[in-house]
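FORM 7B - TANDEM STRUCTURE REPORT

SECTION 1: FIRST PROTEIN
SEQUENCE AND TOKENS:
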Amino acid sequence: MARRALRFALLTWLLGACWIHVPGDRHRPRTPKVVRQSRPTGAISDQCYLVKESPALSKSELHERLALRKPLPERLALVPSHQGRSTLVSTRAAGAPQDARLLNFNAAGQTVEVSLFDCGTVQMLEKHSSLWRVLLSDCDAVLPGTLVQIYDTTPRVEAPESADVAGGVKTTVLQESESARAAVTWNGMNGFSPSNCPREADGVHVAWRLWNCAQGACSLLHEEEDDKALVCEFGSLKKGILTMVVGETRRFWIPWDAPDRRFGRPVPERALPAGDLVVDLTVLGIEREAVFDYKLSEETLKLVNARERSLPVLASRAVGVGIQVFAWAMVYLHYLPPQDLDNMVGFSDTVL
């Protein structure tokens, strides 16, 4: 009986040693299911905090920024005014803010020229305080004569008081999705959540902007629309992303001391830089259980293998195997008949 227990303990140790030295692929191949994909229709919603909690840009404010040598806003949102919505001819633009980039502010002529994404350029003249009239337009979505208000979508370093907290990161909605949240279903460790939200093992298609806010003011670092299915390696952002639906845009404030800065793909392929950051992220599509079909790059595989064979990992696994062997030995000795235990003690004394 004692020899059988010893053999079993030795076999357990050998299996543990093989598991230590030969890290296998634990991913199961699955066929991902695409929920649907969309494209963002604008920078912000007319219900977001930028419209509700901040004034629209006026000509005098742009003059003041130039006089104080402050940077002009990098990104703008053109929000159609109630007085000018009848001139909009596109359902995409009807009531929806337009994402824009400031091209030129002519202080002498008092005009502003902006570029609308996927559309064209628009030149505007201020009609009265913070209300602008479109003079010239290359964009079919906005006709000359349209009345709009301009909002600075460049984030501030501090999140607004109305921001929520998800996973230790402050976040707020910039643009609501056209699709309503579906019925609530069980989402594993995250409890109940809408069925059309991402889950732990899902991949997402995203469009995102990264702002650097380390110097007291935010400046645009990078923006990208990723067509690949990303495994949800979003670190501090993950809690917030798991509550989003396709077409929704959220803004996340990442503090400098956030420990988990993974972003999208496994490191070293993508990670957020150090410092205070703001991330604007739009979910374009969801692929169910894409984590089981995701193929790591060669660089990531080398990093994973090196981590699997590192001394701390090997030591922790060896300790785990030792604890298992010790536990089995204690169980065996507890149920061992007294005569067999005496024989084992006598045999050990003879050997000594």
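SECTION 2: SECOND PROTEIN
SEQUENCE AND TOKENS:
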Amino acid sequence: MDANGYSDPYVKCLKPDMGKKGKCKTQIKKRTLNPEFNEEFSYDIKHSELAKKTLDISVWDYDIGKSNDYIGCQLGITAKGERLKHWYECLKNKDKKIERWHTLLNEN
């Protein structure tokens, strides 16, 4: 949360093995502590290779004039708890959308 009591969150995705071409991000949701991101992205990869890769999805607070703050929720093979469970469910259910709500935590 910024000094004004709000946050300006966005989601950043770093696709494996793609370098700078593999970056994508959502629109910034201005002045909210309860963002909803109803945006979609796709990545072409063989399902058999997916378990060996890490798709890094993270939530950030946009700040003008200084570095953006990480505010939580990474999904991928390095995740823990419910986030890792979500990732495994995605791996298990090929060609199916798996949607989950995740609580955002400042883990710094």
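SECTION 3: OBSERVATIONS ON SECOND PROTEIN
Residues 9-92 form a domain with the Immunoglobulin-like fold (CATH 2.60.40.150).
The chain has one domain: 9-92.

SECTION 4: SIGNATURE
Preparer initials: ____
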